[in-house]
Amino acid sequence: MTAAALLVTVWLCALLLDRIFGEPRRWHPLVGFGYLAKQLELRTNRASGVMPLRVGGVFAWSALVLPAVLLIWILASYVQQLWSPLSFILDSAILYWAIGWRSLCQHIRPVGQALAADDLAESRLRISYLVSRDTAALESDQILAAGLETTLENSSDALFASLFWYALAGPAGVVLHRLANTLDAMWGYKNTRYRYFGWWAARSDDVLNFIPAQLSALGFSILAWSGRGFRCWFAQGWRWKSINAGSVMASGAAALNIIIGGAASYHGETTLRSSLGCGHLPKPEDLERSIRLINRQLVLWLAIAATVGCIS
Question: Which of 282, 239, 231, 284 has the alpha carbon at shortest distance from 257?
Answer without folding.
Answer: 282
